Amino acid sequence: MVCFTNHALDDILEGLINVGIPMEKMLRLGGKSTTLTEPLTVQNQQRVVNRTRDQWVIIDNLKSRSEDMIQRLQQAYDKYDGSRINYGEIADYLEFHDPKFFEALKVVSLEDPDGMKRVDHRGHEIRPFYLMARWQRNLDAGVFVDNITDPELQDVWKLPKAIREELWKSWEECILQADVEHFCELACDYNRIQEELGVALNRAMLPLLRTKRLLGCTTTAAAKYCEDIQAFNPGVLLVEEAGEILESHILTAMGPETSQVILIGDHKYVSWYN
After folding, report:
1. Average pLDDT in the 263-271 region?
2. What is the residue range of 268's domain?
3. For the residues 223-236, what does the mean pLDDT come to?
4. What's the rounded Cα separation, in Å, for the pair 269 and 252?
5. Burial class of 168 by CB neighbour count within 10 A (0 to 12, 13 to 18, 19+)
6. Overall pTM > 0.70
7. Percent above pLDDT 70 for the chain
8. Which of 48, 137, 213, 218 is deepest in the core (most CB within 10 A)?
9. Considering the chain, what is the average pLDDT of its residues?
10. 113 pLDDT exceeds 70?
């Protein structure tokens, strides 16, 4: 039995209790309930079977993996949502996707042949991304001009400002796209772990469901406990407030062997089923 609101669900369940339907044959899915229907909730059911030690190990492992995945998701999102892409990320991207530019913009050595640290024309110490920063600002190779003798690498430094800006923007977009793809992969892994955890947690539900004749829930609970409803596999589905419920909610509450659907509500709004 599926209703749009908790009020309607509890009203019908109370009516069934009042006409003599045994409470031990009914189960109410969801958190909210009235005083009379509270004994029907999952939390107030007598446990039919206890989980084994192996089952608890599986559940604990899945919970641990889920918490670890949440941290990784947060880190991936922070990386994507952070400040501008730095030179190190650009260098990592070029090393694998455009080796020519990587070689042209890489500082080969920070020390001169005598073991002294290299400095620029102003006497400032050369940093690892010295060349990359100059190329981005449309400058020449500075103190490394004479070191770049390969014609292909020289071509990189001959590119005009507009081309440099266009290339830099494309590199940043590719890095951001890779970050998005990485986040999506982590999200899929997290969803898969959650599904496995849901199955592991609900294994104790099946023996309980087998002792019931009537399962009641709202459309929200039907979506949340979809696997439990499929395991219960109702032969008859009763839908109250059918004028407020979408077709997708009906399908969620149906099982493989559901042979009859009863819609209760304004006939003007439930004629779609016919």
Report:
1. 62
2. 2-49+206-273
3. 85
4. 19
5. middle
6. no
7. 92
8. 218
9. 86
10. no
Does the pLDDT value for residue 46 go beyond 50?
Answer: yes
Do residues 178 and 254 share a domain?
Answer: no
The two most distant CA atoms of the chain are separated, in Å, by 99
Same domain, 149 and 176: yes
Q: What is the pLDDT of residue 274?
A: 42
**Contact (CB, 8 A) for 73 and 187:** yes
How far is residue 181's CA from residue 175's CA, in Å, rounded to a whole number? 10
Helices (H), the chain: 6-18, 53-81, 87-97, 99-104, 130-136, 151-158, 161-202, 205-209, 219-224, 226-232, 247-253, 267-270
Token digits for 59?
């559940």
The type of residue at 54 is D
Q: Are residues 175 and 79 in the same domain?
A: yes
Whether residue 135 contacts residue 102, with contact meaning beta carbons closer than 8 Å, is answered with: no
Which of residues 157 and 227 earns the better pLDDT score? Answer: 157
Handedness of CA 126, 128, 131, 132 (dihedral sign): negative
User: What gap in Å lies between CA 66 and CA 79, rounded to an integer?
Assistant: 20
Mean pLDDT for 94-121 is 80
How far is it, in rounded angstroms, from Cα 26 to Cα 13?
9
**Tokens (6 digits) for 228:** 């439990």
Residue 58 makes CB contacts below 8 A (sequence gap 6+) with 200
Residue type, position 27, single letter: L
